[in-house]
Amino acid sequence: MIESIERILATECGLVKDKPIIVGVSGGPDSLCLMEILRQAEFPIIVAYFDHQLRPDSSLDARMVERTATRLMLRCVVDGANVQLHAEQNKLSIEEAARSLRYNFLFKLADKYKAQAVAVGHTADDQVETILMHFLRGSGMNGLKGMPYRSFIKSFHAEIPIVRPLLDVWREETVIYCAVNGLRPHYDSSNDSLNFQRNRIRHLLIPTLETYNPKFREVIMRMSHSLKNDYAFLLENVEKVWKDVVLEISDTFISFDLIRLKNASSGLRRNLIRHAMLLLNSDTDVTFSALERAAEAIDSPSASTRINLKGDLHLLREDNVIYVAFANADLPFDSLPQMPSNKPIYVTVPEEVDLSDGWKFSAEFWRLPALAKEQAEDNADLFQVWLNAEGLPTQLELRSRRAGDQFRPLGMNGHSQKISDFFVNEKIPQRMRERYPLLCAGDEIIWVPGFRPAHQHRLTDETKKVVYFSLVKPEKKMSL
After folding, report:
1. For each of the chain's 480 residues, which pLDDT tens digit applies?
2. CA-CA distance, 76 to 137, in Å (whole number)?
C-alpha cells in the first residue's frame, strides 16, 4: 500500500517531508492505517485525538490512541468537548457539532505546530457515502464528484489544507493493513447507530442498492473520477469568462457586473455563482435550489434584492452589481459615491474635491451655453450635469441628507418630494443612503449625482451662464 500511495501523498496531497502533519486519529482502522502509512513513509506527524464525549467509554479510545502513539514514538495531543451540549446550544445536528469541534481542534493544532496540512482517514467507502449524501440533498456536479485529495476549508483555516490520502482505499483494506502492521483498532459502537444519516446510508441504503448491482460502490467511485474530469473541463470554461464578469474578489465577498452576468448563458451563469460560493467557502454543498434562488434574483426586476444561498452565504443585488458574500461581509461602497463623513464639504467653482473610495467631484464654468445645452441633451452619463449658474451662490455645498430634505427633480414640473422618497423610488441601496452626496445651494438640493438635477436649474434657450459638475468613478481593481 505504501508504494501505491506515495504518488498520491506527493502529487495529489502536495505533502513534503520537512514540515509536520497533524493526523486526526480516532482509533478506528482508517485513521490508524493513515497514521502508520505516513509514519512508514517518514513524514513528520503529530497524532491528534478528539473525544466527542458521546459514549460513556469514549475515554478508552483516547488512552488507546495515546498508548499506540507512545509505542511508535509519535507525539500525541488529546482534547475533547461535550458535543451534545454544543449541538443543543448552537442548534446543530450532532454530526455538524462533532465536525465543527473536531476540525477546530485539528486546525488550531496545525497553527500551533506550523503544520503543512491536516490529514484525515477518509476512505473510498466514505467517498461513496458522501456522494450519496450530496445526491440526496440535490447537489450538482461539484457534490457528485466527491471529496478531493486536498482542499481548503476557509471556515476553519484559509491557508492550511486538509488532505485525504486514502480516498482510493476501501475500508476493508485498512482493516487488513492494521492487522499486518500490528495495530489494534478500537470499534466505535456509535457507527452502528441509525440516528445518523451517514450510518443509515452505510447500513441500509448501500446494501439495498447492492442488491441491484453488487459492484455499486465501484460504480460510484468510477462516476466520481469521471465527474472530476468533467468538472475540471467545466471549470476551465468558467475561468475563461471569470475575469470579464467579476469586479472584485475579497475574503468575504465576490462581486459581479450584473449586465455581463446576464449576457452569459443560464448554465454558465449558474456555474459562475457556484464557483464564487466555493471560492468563499470550499466546504459549501451548493444545491440546485440555491442556484435557482440566485437565478431568480439575477433576473428579478427589483434593483435591490438580498437572498440566502446556503448557510452563511448570501446573494445581494445592488443596482448593476451582484455580490456573493458572507452575511457579515463589509461590502464596498464604491459602486455609488459616498461622503467621507457627515460633515459637509464646501465647494467654490472651479474646484475639485475627493469623496470616499476614490470618487472625485469637480466643478467648472462652461463658456459656451449653446454647446452645453447640446451636450446635456445627448448626455448618457448621469454623473455629469450642466446647470444654469444664474441665481446660484458662489459657494455650494456637498452634504448627506438631512431630516425634512425636499427635492424638485427635473421632469416633475417643479413639484417637490421628500429626498427619502426619491432615494426609494430610484432604488438607491438602503445602506448607501445615509452618506449619499447631495449638491446644495443653501438648503436647496440642486443635483442628486447619478440621477437628476433640480428642475429650476435646468438649461433653457435663455441660459447665459453655465456651470458643469461631474463625479468620476474609480476604476475597479480585482484583488486575488
Report:
1. 556 788 999 999 999 999 999 999 999 999 999 999 999 999 999 999 999 998 888 888 899 999 999 999 999 999 999 999 999 999 999 999 999 999 999 999 999 999 999 999 999 999 999 999 999 988 888 889 999 999 998 889 989 999 999 999 999 999 999 999 999 998 877 777 888 899 999 999 999 999 999 999 999 999 999 999 998 898 898 999 999 999 999 989 999 999 999 999 988 999 999 999 988 987 787 888 889 999 988 988 766 678 899 888 999 888 788 999 998 888 887 778 999 999 999 999 999 999 998 899 999 999 899 999 999 888 888 899 999 999 899 899 999 999 999 999 998 887 999 999 999 888 788 888 999 999 999 999 999 999 999 999 999 999 999 999 999 987 655 444
2. 37
Q: What structural domains does the chain harbor?
A: 2-212 (3.40.50.620), 238-326 (3.30.465.60), 345-472 (3.50.40.10)
**Model pTM score:** 0.70
Q: Name the residue type at position 238.
A: V
Distance CA 408, CA 456 (A): 8
Interstrand relation of 21-24 and 117-119 (parallel, antiparallel or unpaired): parallel
Instruction: Map grid coordinates 498508548 to a residue.
Output: 67
Name the grid cell of 152. Answer: 481548503
Identity of the amino acid at 262: K
Closest C-alpha among 384, 246, 271 to residue 322:
246
| Rounded distance between C-alpha atoms, residue 342 and residue 359, angstroms | 16
